[in-house]
Amino acid sequence: MIPLAMSFRRLGPTGLLNRWLTSDSSPTSDLYFANACQEILTEGLVTQYSPTVFASASTQLVMRHDARTPAHLTRDCLVYFIDDLWNFRDEDPGLSWFYRNKMALVEARAVDWYLKRANAFVVSTPLLADDLRKMSPQADVYLVNPYWSEPVADLDHFDRHSFDIAYLGGQVHRADLEFLLPAIRRVLDEIPEASFTLSVGHRIPSDLETHPRVRRLQALRWRDYRLLLPKKRFHLALYPLLDTPFNRARSINKIIEHAVTGAVGLYSDWWVENLPKAFATNTLKVPNNSDMWADKIIHCYENRQDVKIKAKALSETIGKLSHKEDQIDLWSKLFKI
To answer: Which domain of life is it from (predicted)?
Structure first.
């Protein structure tokens, strides 16, 4: 009955909706499997059947959802991966209307489906691991860090006179960005050498939209964004996180993404305090107060060589705590290869 039910799920209304709401590429699949395990894919030990579904002879891996997957694909062993909180209960997750509903219709339904069927779960944060252990005690639960195949940047740009700031959060973080904008206005007013870069997908007030030192990253598909990012250089990358259910489950991924551009991340203090100690030590934090964010950014500008030292230490930390061998070992075990 499971293959028949699976076929109906993938071909019926749920499958059609999933295809409409998802894309043909997946950052999650790359960062948590394909980047590290490219040789396993090349050798044919595991085959990719959709952007988010992989299978060996014995095991099927579903990452977030199974949209765009052949209807009858099934294996004896089932592994499910999730890297976002899907169950907001009665709390406001702080997400845009589209993303909140996309999570409810795609990821949350996928989790509900696989909770009863998966032999193992893999997750990106301890919070997600705790939730799944409670909800699905029959399954093993594993924790894994993301892996970027793009190297962290050199730090030559710290010798330039400019001070380049970035916000690399996606539209899912719209509310977090809105909190940040008053601080950005003040920084641009007080630091003539400062620039601020963010995605063209974000709406910002007209005074910032037309500001000569506000720059935009073009809207790109994931694979093109990966090609662009290592060519960029920033000194400071901002990632304010309001204390919401969704943000509490954020992984260390943004820290690595920022390092690929040569930036040290400035983060909300409550989030940093829940990071692994090695990352918490080598990042910057500030309370969620707009004036304090502006003060901290200005302090970083005035002490950019200290920021450079922190960036170097962060690069070394990433090399130790986010490397492909850990992922290869885990996935080889779960795929039984």
So the answer is: Bacteria
State how far the alpha carbon of 86 is from the alpha carbons of 114, 116, 137, 190, in Å. 13, 16, 18, 41
Q: For the chain, which residues score pLDDT lower than 70? A: 1-4, 6, 8, 89-90
| CA 16 distance to own-chain centroid | 26
**253-260 and 304-321 helices, crossing angle to 10°:** 120
227 and 237 in contact (C-beta within 8 Å)? no
Q: Are 264 and 254 in contact (CB under 8 A)?
A: no
Please state whether 89 falls in left (phi above 0), alpha (psi between -120 and 50) or beta.
left
What span, in angstroms and rounded, lies between the C-alpha atoms of 25 and 319? 26
